[in-house]
Amino acid sequence: MPETTRESLTAGGWKTLSFEPFRDAVTIHWIQPFETDQPGVALLKYEAGAAVPRHRHMGLETIVVLEGTQSDEAGDYGPGSLVVNREGSEHSVWSDTGCVVLIQWDRPVKILQEELA
């Protein structure tokens, strides 16, 4: 199992990890899958132009941008940015350039608006 310490991830160690499909043009590597009364911790890798539709946070979500730029209605977040989305908050997320983020969710989000086909 690859090392998933903070130091190795911020130094690009995530590049050796395997990712699986999560949403259209977004892949995931689970560090700690959701369990009963346990938050989920993962790496999300967005391809350039990827987006997650508007959603509501059902618990606290914390993100650290490791590479690239992640954006939402409040702004753009580059490497090293810490983004905290409180329970009940809503937004859409996208990455024009592609990005990799370390994310922790207390609970899964509720998608409010799916992408139109």
TrEMBL record:
Q: Which GO terms describe its molecular function?
A: hydrolase activity
Q: Which UniProt keywords apply?
A: Hydrolase
Task: Domain (ChrR-like cupin): give its ranges.
Answer: 16-103
What InterPro entries does UniProt report for this protein, alphabetically? ChrR-like_cupin_dom, RmlC-like_jellyroll, RmlC_Cupin_sf
Q: Which Pfam families does the protein's record reference?
A: Cupin_7 (PF12973)
Flavoprotein as a keyword of this entry, yes or no, is no
The protein depicted here goes by the name: Allophanate hydrolase
